Amino acid sequence: MAVRDPLVAPAVDNSLTLPIETILGHQFAKPALLREALTHRSASPRAGARRKASAKHGAGSNERLEFVGDRVLGLLMAEWLAERFPEEQEGALGRRLSHLVSQPVLARVAESIGLEDALDVSPGEARAGVKKRATVLADALEAALGAVYLDGGLAPARAFVRRAWEPAMTAQAEPPKDAKTALQEWAQTRGPDLPVYAVAGRSGPPHAPEFTVTVTAAGGTGTGVAASKRAAETAAAADLLRQVQR
Question: For a designed S-S bond to 182, which of 8, 147, 177, 219 qualifies (C-beta 3.0 to 4.6 A apart)?
């Protein structure tokens, strides 16, 4: 689909010029979907009484679109992997899929396309650096994909995924191991002790919790933040592996 000049998408209480249509490769028929995808829950109408008058479709947070994008990403990635690795069976394909849709990879993809610059967060959260958090970047990327799918269908969503995830896909010479499994194997080569995981904190509302988990192994410590303890453990393991592999 042809891409026109960057969309000028007004935020709820100011104006923001977003080259995001160019980044996503899709011209939105419903710009409200794009604004919704780029709105962190801290900047949603429900986050403050001053924005209640703007609580329309497209002015809420991106959590709903994140839900959609997560499912769309899983489908399109499975389709791509089946095409790219026709000789591999479910186990190997599953490990590749888990890696490609993991929070660390999503955060790196979001960073590579400059998605954080387009995010709408509250001033307080912006000062706290929330735009750089892996969990926020990953959620926003899935929400953007969900918006593309709902606005244009699978074709533009597929084109965006294959373009944005190409470096991560081509880097997989062999099916990757789960980060927790890889960390355990690494730790066992250095002694009898297995990695130890601990929940360091929990924040966010009940419907959208955010867990912080640490993992310690062979004298090193990794930290992960995600919407579930299991995902946070995986992110923590990946963080420690990145440290020891430098």
Answer: 177
What DSSP letter does each residue of 28-76 carry, written as one string? -S-HHHHHHHTB-GGGSGGG-GGGGGG-STTSS-THHHHHHHHHHHHHH
In this structure, the number of other CB atoms found within 10 A of the CB of residue 246 comes to 5
pTM: 0.68
Domain assignment of residue 69, yes or no = yes
Q: How far apart are CA 104 and CA 99, in angstroms?
A: 9
> In this structure, are 33 and 136 located in the same domain?
yes
How far apart are alpha carbons 102 and 120 in whole angstroms? 23
Angle between helix 103-112 and helix 229-245 axes, rounded to 10 deg: 70
Query: Is 50 exceeded by the pLDDT of residue 53?
Result: no
Q: Of 143, 170, 197, which one is at a domain's C-terminal end?
A: 170
Please check the confidence at residue 119 and state whether its pLDDT lies above 50.
yes
Could you give the CA distance from residue 153 to residue 139 in angstroms, rounded to a whole number? 20
Catalytic residue list: 70, 142
Task: Give, to the nearest 10 degrees, the angle between helix 63-84 and helix 154-164.
Answer: 70
Are residues 198 and 98 both part of a single domain?
no
Question: Which residues form the domain of 238?
Answer: 179-245
Tens digits of residue pLDDT in 198-226: 999 999 888 778 999 999 998 999 999 98
| 101 and 128 together in one domain | yes
The Cα 121–Cα 131 span in angstroms is 8
User: What is the rounded CA–CA span in Å between residue 201 and residue 78?
Assistant: 33
